[in-house]
Amino acid sequence: MRGNHLVRLRESTGPNALVLIHPASGSAASYRALEPHLGGDFSVYAFQATGVDAGRPRSIEGIAQAYLAEFQAAAPDATPIYVGWSFSGPVVVEMARLGEEQGRGPAGVILLDSAPPEALRGRTADHAAEIGGLLGLDLSATDARSVDELLDEAAELIAVASDTPGLTGADLRPFWDVYVWHQGIFDDGWQARPCAAPLLMVRAQDETGWNAEPECLGWSALVGRAVPVVRAPGTHYTLMDEHRLPGIARIVDRAIEEWAAAPHPARERVVRPSPVSS
Q1: pLDDT tens track for 43-80
Q2: Distance (Å, rounded) from C-alpha 66 to C-alpha 20?
Q3: Angle at 7 between CA 84 and CA 108, to 5 degrees
Q4: pTM value?
Q5: How far separated are the first and last CA of the chain, in Å rounded?
Q6: Helix (H) or strand (E) holding 183
Q7: Measured in whole angstroms, how far is the alpha carbon of residue 262 from the centre of its chain?
Q8: Neighbours of 44 (CB within 10 A)
Q9: Which residues form the Thioesterase TesA-like domain (predicted)?
Q10: Under CATH, to which class is 6-122+191-267 assigned?
């Protein structure tokens, strides 16, 4: 997407702002659908990236720096709560860390079935699952194997469901290209660094692709303290399906209420994360 990536979904006079960062698809559609289910007196912002822009930084640090600056310009006085889903988990942790260096840390960070880069690189998923998840389709029974074949089949399914005859796999290719662009960022061996803000992991209880990763998907080891984990129905790709959004909203609302009631020291000064009991 060219130009600004930030979309304001809800305006509030409250001190906090929920800041939702897009997954590898670049889409903020699930966040738009989530917003009506959220309670509380806080603003809601979402980042989206609907295309591949050659001038956009292609690194976790670069995206985090750009998004942090864009949010701070839009809401300079708000205390953020960052939310990252899948790809964007490392992005929001880096945004939190960078903000803490400025003395403008978040109240907390919510990770939606996301892991540090090492675990993300080792996650088990095939192209059918990825393309199905990207487009909201079940392609588990398909005989198609190549990306082009899968996109063609997806186009046929979407054309029938949405009454858009003539839709082809080539029409869907840009969505896949954005997804691959973001996923490829982790190929350079980038290592996440800890933030001091409290983290909450929301695990997709039906997901099997994390293999032998720990319950927290490795975040506790990274930040040097126990990261609490809650389970929510769905897989990595269906966690944010429309009928599951009320449950996700309740988790988010509870976290914001708890964090807002307990000011975080990283908002005023830079602190080192220290181990705490679970």
Answers
A1: 999 999 988 777 777 889 999 999 999 999 999 999 99
A2: 14
A3: 35
A4: 0.87
A5: 41
A6: helix 169-183
A7: 24
A8: 25
A9: 23-256
A10: alpha beta
